[in-house]
């Protein structure tokens, strides 16, 4: 259905794709994997016509092109669902699906709603065509993007990290839809960092490394270790570091915390402990961290740090009390992308380097270099713009920015979202070393393997309430999901 031959793309000083040849078959789910910076995004943009290659050719269903344009890509029935959803929030579901279509002089709202309903019925989508997109969950917004592609009679659908913002049950819903699309002969190009998902949904897997094509393998004929070796160029056996140190005394106590969609949350955190927080989308995990970090104000309940009750009305209050938040969305909430690594790393503590309202540049640069070296942030120099870094290195800059304030309690919200397996390992080692130094860590994650592999205890939230707590001996995917779904096992927890 789609063939790429000898595709090369060169940016000043960087070869993004180097003589890459790949083929994608009719009606298959073909995963493309690789570390951040491997060339996956460049590949997508070349297929969709967002950028032109320096060399090579693209063949779509027998037609050969030197390069694509967005119009030519759409004409050849290629649709892209990007990780950052491209919808108009203030318009309805139906309006978004058929936006830009020619219905004559006026946009026919009634007609598009009827067309959308027919499409939903055919694929079994539970969507309201009149609902505003801004009211939808991330999972349903992804479905709207898929509907846009289907309504354009897409033959090739590229999905770029489509599960990044989805909970486990929503991922299963998406996979069910992918299988239906496959049955109808649509070719799915599936970009993901999550190995378990790739093994579950794909037929074949292609790997890129440093802009080069490494291999294409049948999913049933490979394994996790082989894929990791292809991606990083060596074997990577232990992704989660060993915890070989003692957990210390209580550092954080949260009692009956309510507000921002959560109710009566109570738990403790100890020095050197990584406390995992699991739950489905909408369970209140992020909302809980927002209350503790002062992003949102709580309406009742108390927060104590080292036995002392504290008042947190803003992020500034939380930072003053030794609480730092690494937010879920690093691009929108954690970084100023068009500014430098130096600026971002020292953003929260500029006043430390000021004398008579003037910043001491040498002190500021020394601190930024200290954290660059400590976290192994791969960057040419401190004046490099953050937007040019890989996802893993951007995440390290967010962590560096918070660590520069030297907090005792760290709140990690989806710490490895959208980063590759090697960068994940580096982030895990950073978290482990922080815990070893006595820092207390609360980690929210939608990645089941991450929660089970990194946590000392796990809190499970459901619909804004704390549904249960699991100790190491109780760590199983079944126990986490049963609690997250509100199904409490009586043999473990008694009556609900």
Structure, described:
- It contains 18 helices and 22 strands.
- It is of the alpha/beta class and 496 residues long.
- It folds into two domains: 231 residues, Rossmann fold, CATH 3.40.50; 244 residues, P-loop containing nucleotide triphosphate hydrolases (Rossmann fold).
- The chain has a six-stranded mixed β-sheet, with helices on both faces. A six-stranded mixed β-sheet has the order 16-19-20-13-21-22, with helices on both faces.
Write the layout of secondary structure elements.
Elements: E1 2-11, E2 14-24, E3 29-33, H1 40-48, E4 55-60, E5 63-65, H2 70-75, E6 78-81, H3 93-97, H4 109-123, H5 138-151, E7 156-160, H6 168-183, E8 187-191, H7 195-201, E9 204-209, E10 212-218, H8 224-232, E11 250-259, E12 262-270, E13 274-278, H9 285-292, E14 300-305, E15 308-310, H10 315-320, E16 323-326, H11 330-334, H12 341-345, E17 354-355, E18 358-359, H13 361-374, H14 391-403, E19 409-413, H15 421-436, E20 440-444, H16 448-454, E21 457-462, E22 465-471, H17 477-484, H18 490-493
Parallel strand pairs: 3-8, 3-9, 6-7, 7-8, 13-20, 13-21, 16-19, 19-20
Antiparallel strand pairs: 1-2, 1-4, 4-5, 9-10, 11-12, 11-14, 14-15, 17-18, 21-22
């Amino acid at each position: 259905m789609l063939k790429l031959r000898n595709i090369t793309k060169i940016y000043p000083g960087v070869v993004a794709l180097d003589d890459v040849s790949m083929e994608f078959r009719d009606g298959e789910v073909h995963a493309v994997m690789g570390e951040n910076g491997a060339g996956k995004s460049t590949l997508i943009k070349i297929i969709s016509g967002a950028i032109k290659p320096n060399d090579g050719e693209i063949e779509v269903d027998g037609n050969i092109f030197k390069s694509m344009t967005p119009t030519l890509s759409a004409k050849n029935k290629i649709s892209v669902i990007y990780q950052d959803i491209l919808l108009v929030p203030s318009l309805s579901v139906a309006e978004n699906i058929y936006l830009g279509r020619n219905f004559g002089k006026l946009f026919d709202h009634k007609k598009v709603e009827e067309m959308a309903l027919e499409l939903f019925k055919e694929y079994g989508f539970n969507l309201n065509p009149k609902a505003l997109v801004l009211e939808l969950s991330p999972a349903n917004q992804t479905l709207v993007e898929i509907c846009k592609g289907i309504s354009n009679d897409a033959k090739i659908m590229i999905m770029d990290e489509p599960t990044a913002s989805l909970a486990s049950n929503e991922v299963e819903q998406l996979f069910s839809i992918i299988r239906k699309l496959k049955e109808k002969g649509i070719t799915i190009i599936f970009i993901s960092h999550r190995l378990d998902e790739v093994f579950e949904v794909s037929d074949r897997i292609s790997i890129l490394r440093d802009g080069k094509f490494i291999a294409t393998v049948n999913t049933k004929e490979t394994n996790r270790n082989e894929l990791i070796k292809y991606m990083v160029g060596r074997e990577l056996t232990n992704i989660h570091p060993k915890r070989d140190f003692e957990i210390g005394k209580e550092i954080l106590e949260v009692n009956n915390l309510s507000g921002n969609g959560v109710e009566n949350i109570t738990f403790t955190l100890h020095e050197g402990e990584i406390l995992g927080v699991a739950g489905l989308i909408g369970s209140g995990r992020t909302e809980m961290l927002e209350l503790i970090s002062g992003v949102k104000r709580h309406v009742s309940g108390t927060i104590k740090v080292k036995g002392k009750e504290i008042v947190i009305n803003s992020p500034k209050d939380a930072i003053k009390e030794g609480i730092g938040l690494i937010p879920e969305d690093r691009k929108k909430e954690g970084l100023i992308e068009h500014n430098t690594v130096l600026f971002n790393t020292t953003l929260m503590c500029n006043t430390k380097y000021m004398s008579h309202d003037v910043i001491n540049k040498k002190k500021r640069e020394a601190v930024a270099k200290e954290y660059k070296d400590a976290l192994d942030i791969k960057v040419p120099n401190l004046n490099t713009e953050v937007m040019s870094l890989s996802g893993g290195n951007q995440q390290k800059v967010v962590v560096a920015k918070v660590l520069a304030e030297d907090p005792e309690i760290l709140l990690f919200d989806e710490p490895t979202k959208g980063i590759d397996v090697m960068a994940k390992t580096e982030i895990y080692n950073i978290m482990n070393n922080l815990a070893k130094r006595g820092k207390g860590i609360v980690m929210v994650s939608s990645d089941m393997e991450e929660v089970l592999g990194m946590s000392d205890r796990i809190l499970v939230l459901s619909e804004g309430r704390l549904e249960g707590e699991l100790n190491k001996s109780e760590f199983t995917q079944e126990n986490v999901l049963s609690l997250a779904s509100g199904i409490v096992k009586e043999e473990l927890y008694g009556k609900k």
